Amino acid sequence: MKVAKFGGSSVASAEKFMKVADIVMTDQERRIVVVSAPGKRFKDDIKMTDLLIALTSQILTGNSYAEEFKAIIVRYKEIADGLKLKSYICDEIAENLQDIIDTYKEDANRLLDSVKASGEDNNARLMAFYLQSLGLKAQYVNPKEAGIFVTDEPGNAQVLKQSYRELANLREREEILVIPGFFGYSEQGNIVTFPRGGSDITGSIVAAGVKATMYENFTDVDSIVCVNPTIVEKPKDIKEITYREMRELSYAGFSVFHDEALHPVVSQKIPVCVKNTNNPQAPGTLIVAERDYSKQQVAGIASDEGFCSIYVSKYLMNREIGFGRRLLQILEDEQISYEHTPSGIDDMSIILRKCQLTNGKEERVLERIQKELNVDDVKVQYGLALIMVVGEGMTSSVGVAAKATNAFSEAGVNLELINQGSSEVSMMFGVKETELNKAVQSLYKAYFEQPVSALTL
Ligand code: ASP
């Protein structure tokens, strides 16, 4: 049994729905379909989820929301009309959305989550209806009925363990089941959404629950490429990659697969295949527990901008017990999350996304560090980009790190920081944002265009 998840761009129009139906029909193993809300049809199009968020803010500010409401129904109607479906399905969608608004309009968080979730929910109803119209035995299944139970954190749900037991019952069902992605139900019965892009997470939870032989993740690219294609032209495809490698890459800017979506399938060792809805014959990228890395130690290079570093220096910091804890406590008090903390004898840097320091937090944090920790120097350095070189073969091979440092020196890029060792499968480098492209291009050349010379131990 396979679970096939279709992302927003794969279910954005009637034409895409037809492709999905073809894909479902060509493989009888595809018994469970998870869908996103309609995504973008063209570059400047607006995703359904964003339309729904705009609708919610109109409601919450007490403004008229008729226009936003209409835009949402029009999107579904275009799909339904293009598929020649009976018009009452869109009347039902409109009623369902109005019901949600009437029920939750006094509770901002619940309203936002329930309205957002309706994007996938109504799209799943539409998909099931369409598959039925083609004569398939298909059935919409609500996440509550499926047994997807989550923590009660609006917009940030995490799956509860009991879900896997409940989901196992879906194996007995004979129909093709269509489940909306992106949300589950709390034990109190509230609709709670995962973080943005979270339909990938639903697909993975369902695949783990039913012990699928494969979790197929359909999107709009033939395969995952090994580096950001806006930095390196036509980079190589990744044919096979491990869970650990994928997790590191998606954390650091690879947007193809949600970085929280692997966890559920990992323990069951269910392979994940990222495939293209527009070209389903292409083999795609296979994400597995283990791969033979003797010929390609490095799987990919991820990079992202928008970081900054809080640099703290104090003579004899290494001997001051509790210094690190008190420093991090200041961040915790301000609800700031950080990414890395490279440190030296007398210095420590905290690398974080710069958006974490807005709304006066920067001034408050610097002042407290200065006063409470009595440091010699504290400053924030902006304009930092992080690069992760990721590969299972890295720790057991000689010369992999040397290749990176050579690549930086050949490109004339100064390294702001290096972090190697905490993760067995990645090395992290910090460079100035202005030097990012040069650095990544040079690394790509070193790892993917030159013959493998590193020795495997
Ligand atoms: N529709 C949601 C979003 O745009 C979830 C998803 O598509 O995975 O974030």
UniProtKB/TrEMBL annotation:
Catalytic activity, as annotated: L-aspartate + ATP = 4-phospho-L-aspartate + ADP
Entry's Gene Ontology cellular component terms: cytosol
GO BP terms: diaminopimelate biosynthetic process; homoserine biosynthetic process; lysine biosynthetic process via diaminopimelate
EC number, as in UniProt: 2.7.2.4
Binding residues annotated for ATP, in chain numbering: 5-8, 219-220
This protein's UniProt keywords: Amino-acid biosynthesis, ATP-binding, Diaminopimelate biosynthesis, Kinase, Lysine biosynthesis, Nucleotide-binding, Transferase
Annotated GO MF terms: aspartate kinase activity; ATP binding
Residues binding substrate: 49, 120
Function: Catalyzes the phosphorylation of the beta-carboxyl group of aspartic acid with ATP to yield 4-phospho-L-aspartate, which is involved in the branched biosynthetic pathway leading to the biosynthesis of amino acids threonine, isoleucine and methionine.
Protein family per UniProt: Belongs to the aspartokinase family.
Name of the protein described by the UniProt record: Aspartokinase
